[in-house]
Amino acid sequence: MTSSTPSWSPPPDTGRWLERVAPVPRPPRPWASPHVYTAESVTTPHWTEPLRVIYDHELVLFREGDYLLEVSGERYSCPAGSFAIVPPGQWHTSYDVGGRRGRRQWCHFDWLPGMQHEDTPVMTFHPDVPQTDRLRLAPDFLPVGVLHGPIRQTNRADSLMGQLIAQQRSGSERDRLLSRATLLALLVELLLPAEPVPEPQAAADRLATSVRRLLDETAARSGPIPPIVPLLQSLGRSYAHLCRLFHQEYGISPLHYVHAARMGRARLLLAEGQLGIAEIAYRLGYGDPGHFARVFRKITGTTPTAYLATRRGV
């Protein structure tokens, strides 16, 4: 049995399938108002949820404490500041494993409207047998299984979840309809990667120039090429952001640029004819002459030996 930590990598094409859904919170039971399926609760240390199957999807935000979620034998570590979406039809349970009070918020929902909730079970507890013909499954274009990861923007998620709970508790038709928009906004916040704030063009150009200056200095030094990610992060921005700006400006990746600069020096040293190929490789920071030859060919389209032969008219 494995345990997964909440490191969020969005499923492929997350933005596209989010465009195709219209999530609907499970409506309150009118005969038991204000019994709702969007709410929050406090758990005591060592609290355990009975093993169960749900008939719709359940979004759970883990706000305080430390939880363990087990779904069909797979374990997910759910510390404070993480979320999980549990699909229908899978036996699952939750544990408060933190040794202190915990707090969870949840919302039962369908990915698409139009499903009937009247007399539809919410859950079945073990050892009763679930009514599999009544499960409200996700459309086939959605990822399969548990969606699970950290809450990146906690303030935004707090605001949206608080609004969603209030709308579901109010009982008004207007709030019921508005809750659909709130749930969609919350799911987008949790599932879709944050888009970088566009840089003003002048600032973007300055950053790209700063990256090039740093790479020029790196290429000119002796010794192996240092790791590029922390090198660029020393400029105070994320590697992904700086790499994107640099590629947009110069058309190649930062590492390719450093190799190209060093191969430019290699061509000069080869043309001078004072040093052998192995010595040039070591001088430029390539401890393995074979690696140097492969990089040289990738950058120049020819091998160092063939380049020397061309220069000598052989």
Distance, first to last CA: 65 Å
Identify the overall geometry.
Answer: elongated
Strand-residue proportion: 15-25%
CATH homologous group name of the largest domain: Regulatory protein AraC
Q: Largest sheet at a glance?
A: 6 strands, antiparallel
Looking at the structure, the CATH topology of the largest domain is Jelly Rolls
- Named CATH architecture of the largest domain: Sandwich
Number of domains: 2
Structural class: alpha+beta
Order of helices and strands: EHEEEEEEEEEEEHHHHHHHHH
In the CATH scheme, the class of the largest domain would be Mainly Beta
Provide the residue-averaged pLDDT.
88
Cα Rg: 28 Å
| Number of helices, where a helix is a run of at least 4 consecutive DSSP H or I residues | 10
Helicity range: 40-55%
- Number of separate strands: 12
Q: Residue ranges: pLDDT <50 for 5 or more in a row?
A: none
Assembly classification: single chain
Topology:
Layout (H helix, E strand, L loop, with lengths): L2 E2 L9 H7 L3 E2 L12 E6 L8 E3 L2 E8 L1 E6 L2 E6 L2 E5 L5 E5 L5 E9 L12 E3 L21 E4 L3 H17 L2 H19 L9 H20 L7 H6 L5 H12 L3 H19 L4 H7 L5 H12 L3 H8 L3
Parallel strand pairs: 1-7
Antiparallel strand pairs: 2-10, 3-10, 4-11, 5-8, 5-10, 6-7, 6-9, 8-12
Structure, explained:
It is a single chain. This protein has 314 residues and is of the alpha+beta class. It has 2 domains: 3-191, Jelly Rolls (Sandwich), CATH 2.60.120; 201-311, Homeodomain-like (Arc Repressor Mutant, subunit A), CATH 1.10.10.60. Helix content is 40%, strand content 19%. It is built from 10 helices and 12 strands. The protein has helices spanning 14-20, 154-170, 173-191, 201-220, 228-233, 239-250, 254-272, 277-283, 289-300, 304-311, and strands spanning 3-4, 24-25, 38-43, 52-54, 57-64, 66-71, 74-79, 82-86, 92-96, 102-110, 123-125, 147-150. The strands form 3 sheets. Strands 2, 3, 5, 8, 10 and 12 form a 6-stranded antiparallel β-sheet that branches. A 4-stranded mixed β-sheet has the order 1-7-6-9, with no helix packed on it. A two-stranded antiparallel ribbon has the order 4-11. A hairpin with a 2-residue loop joins strand 6 and strand 7. The N and C termini lie far apart (65 Å).
